[in-house]
Amino acid sequence: MTDGKTREITLAEVKEHTTAEDCWVAVDGKVYDLSDYIDIHPGGNESIEAEAEATKAYDFVGHSAYANKMMDQYQIGILVEVKKEEPPSPEEPETFV
Question: Among 21, 22, 62, 63, which residue's Cβ finds the most Cβ atoms within 10 Å?
């Protein structure tokens, strides 16, 4: 059983939650469900809904230590990369001498 903050979530999954009613974002490798916060966000909901991977935007604004701490309560997991399966390597051709 996980604590909810260690659930592995892909960026593709985050991108499935991009409305004001169902809004997930990834910041610094952590995934947050901001659905309950979006209506009271001082910067408005457009700034949150803008992109799923929001680290650059979050850092650009320069959030306070209080805002950074407040984010903890909305964390639902960690962002993971999906590793593409390597195609099977072709068998070496037989050599005839």
Answer: 63
The tokens describing 5, both together, are: 């903050």
Cβ-based neighbour number of residue 48 at 10 Å: 22
Over residues 23-65, the pLDDT tens digits come to 899 999 999 999 988 887 777 666 665 677 888 887 788 888 9
d(CA 81, CA 12): 9
Mean pLDDT on 71-92: 78
Show the domains of the chain with their CATH numbers.
8-80 (3.10.120.10)
Alpha-carbon gap, residue 26 to 54, rounded angstroms:
6
Q: Would you state the structure tokens that stand for residue 55, as one six-digit string?
A: 């680290």
